[in-house]
């Protein structure tokens, strides 16, 4: 078996191209147990995602989880599925199209596409296509605002494995995280202000109100081992609260999607919101700043399950604020992130130096005649 993939045919005179790839986590191809099983097997087989020795984890994954969880998860996916497919795929594709348009308006001649880390379109397949089209410069934009070894690092792992199989490698860059990016924070703050305009802004220091920022959870052990995710989540929450002018007592930062029996980052979202009515909190506005596109974890877990938990516990008003999705201010922030990473690459149309020189010569000639 050859060590390297065959190189695509090279056509002389073909100019090198630059590409931007927006990469998100992934989704099943359909809300069925079979599709969910395929997706979960790929996702939960990644040692970055589940840091349990393979000899211990493999029997649990294949003998228990993949025989029970797909049916349960498929039923949840069915409640959020759209005629166009998975919300995560729909939003990611739209974001890529809007990003391409805005970068084009700013004068960049780049290809913009999208890929998924798990499921389809698979990142290696997208990179293969770009290379075949003579893209010699590729920028990866993982859609994870806060860095974690179980998210951003998995994208870089897969991209690195792809590079390792190539004889003629392209240049590769990647955005690490953007937890404190001013444009990202501003877009989040604008979405909350718009929500308050529509549903009423809470009174200053109102003890019955909380703005809850729910981030995806990870095992606490990863924090102890040096993963910066926890700190970056709190940085985002702190900057957003500051931008909104909210006092500390009206803001909560929580972590959702706990899986298994091990301790994860706390406080946990669902138990925290279930307890809030006992403390006199009757209204919550909940957003998920760690997701830039709505998905199962936001639309089903938060907007359905956690909402029911809060209301059943005595809460009166629960509002879920959608992810940034296709907001123009978020697309502008995403374009800013891309432009900073593209710096130094020749992505803009070259100046017509010959035409400029001729214009200057004509101006000089006219000046001399006058």
TrEMBL record:
Subcellular location: Cytoplasm
GO biological process, one term: heme biosynthetic process
Reaction(s) catalysed by this chain's protein: Fe-coproporphyrin III + 2 H(+) = coproporphyrin III + Fe(2+); heme b + 2 H(+) = protoporphyrin IX + Fe(2+)
EC numbers on record: 4.98.1.1
GO molecular function: ferrochelatase activity; metal ion binding
Gene Ontology annotations for the cellular component aspect, listed alphabetically: cytoplasm
Pfam families to which the protein is assigned, alphabetical: Ferrochelatase
Keywords associated with the record: Cytoplasm, Heme biosynthesis, Iron, Lyase, Metal-binding, Porphyrin biosynthesis
InterPro entries: Ferrochelatase, Ferrochelatase_AS, Ferrochelatase_C, Ferrochelatase_N
Residues given in the record as Fe(2+) binding sites: 216, 297
Pathway(s) per entry: Porphyrin-containing compound metabolism; protoheme biosynthesis; protoheme from protoporphyrin-IX: step 1/1
Database matches in HAMAP family: Ferrochelatase
PANTHER family: FERROCHELATASE (PTHR11108), FERROCHELATASE, MITOCHONDRIAL (PTHR11108:SF1)
Function noted in UniProt: Catalyzes the ferrous insertion into protoporphyrin IX.
Family (UniProt): Belongs to the ferrochelatase family.
Listed name of the protein: Ferrochelatase
Gene source species: Oryzomicrobium terrae
Taxonomic classification: Bacteria, Pseudomonadati, Pseudomonadota, Betaproteobacteria, Rhodocyclales
Gene: hemH
